[in-house]
Queue: 2 jobs
Job 1
Amino acid sequence: MTTTGPSSTPTEADTIGRVLVVGAGAMGSQIAMVCALAGRTVHLVDTDPQTLTRAGAELRARMDSRVARGRLGAQERDAAFAHLHLGTDLDAAAADVDLVIEAVVEKIDVKTELFRRLDRVTPDHAILASNSSSFVPSRLAAATTRPDRVCNLHFFNPALVMACVEVVPGEATSPTTTATAVAFTRALGKEPVVLDREVDGFLANRILNAVRDEAVRLYEGGYASLESIDLACRTALGHPQGPFELQDLTGLDIAWFTKTARYAETGDPADLPSASLDARVGAGHLGRKTGRGWYRYDDDGTKTPAPDPVTGA
Ligand SMILES: NC(=O)c1ccc[n+]([C@@H]2O[C@H](COP(=O)([O-])OP(=O)(O)OC[C@H]3O[C@@H](n4cnc5c(N)ncnc54)[C@H](O)[C@@H]3O)[C@@H](O)[C@H]2O)c1
């Protein structure tokens, strides 16, 4: 992907020395590590202490594995962990940050409430960014007194690996905020892709969703199995993973929330979650994180298509 948008200077990136990442789930934990590896002081905060413990252990294992494979120096690893602070006290962690990256559950009321609080407890100069996959920054900016310093920084899963970060300015985002976000993204070693105008879902996921919707139509219409559809996307279109395999990685619940939120806005039945997605999410089959989604993942590493929990088909 090529980089577009405002030019950046190292000075702009350097203004972000201290980062707060809120939400230590699949995205927030790795985003925090990316920032720590780039030498930033990072606070990673979650309301759930167990999630923090799990995130810390997973990051430690990932970084140790990089060191063992010669892809990261032991000193760099240790320096990054020295920069990374995990905790549950949001207000204390927010007190002296330059940038917040919010990565909590994809629910607009939870995010809005959090942005209202962040606006109160962060320094005035701090940029408040959301990693939301769908909500445009203007919706969150409205909960703050600093809409010029609100934008989306949309990382992709897994954030430690994926290069693209969509930088999404809202209606009121200042050019300085966008330029700083671009420079910071580059300083992380990522590829900023800047939107000219906000649109929900942004770029990559809107394109992916069109592919995914067609994949589900073909599957529910009985034209082909999950495996055949994934195989076609991999071998004919050059996608590294098929749409069902990818959704198992990113989480079926994320897709369900995104669709439901979109339907709430448009009222268009075409935006509702498909029956097969609805059935799986209703049964708690959320993808790899629960061991079962479109596919079932067994302990021995095998992956087999999982029947629909409602129809059994
Ligand atoms: N999963 C993906 O592939 C992906 C990719 C890009 C962006 N995103 C976006 O990133 C965000 C997080 O997604 P995820 O997959 O990491 O979710 P997740 O469910 O794995 O993690 C969310 C975390 O937020 C915590 N949390 C909830 N409310 C909180 C609060 N008020 N304060 C602090 N912590 C709170 C939860 O305890 C949980 O640990 C969502 O907005 C999602 O749309 C997800």
Job 2
Amino acid sequence: MNASFIKVLFLAFAIPFFFSCTSEEEIQSGAQLELPEDGIEIVDAWARPGRDGGVSAIYMHVLNGSAETDTLVAFSSPVAGLVELHETFDRGDGMMGMRESEEPYFPARSIVSMRPGGLHVMLMQLNRALREGDEVELSLTFSQAGEFTITAPVRSPE
Ligand SMILES: [Cu+2]
């Protein structure tokens, strides 16, 4: 594979990814999801397919039922060499870009929803292909609530 072929592959992946964008972060009132009494709960996690050496993203709802804002301080996944919390932003030229979130905050008594076109956990340097039906393990460490390990099924975005 030469470099331009890789670039084409990346664009084919990235364009639908950016265009489904809504806002960079959506905090819902919790109409369908119920906040836990205390602490953090992570629900409905899923990952998009990715190729070996490529990238993927994990989406989820983070429910913070505690009375304090919590901060995401670390991540890891056995399938990725690098994991970051990304936000999608308007580059101002009609395109959407993504960058590492500088505010990994999860406000008290709130739900932060990660979804395509918004906030997501970016998996980079995949050490194997992720196909529909696979499962991906992800560990997240919050400054207050501590470490969580979740399993996200791989599926294609609707
Ligand atoms: Cu990203």
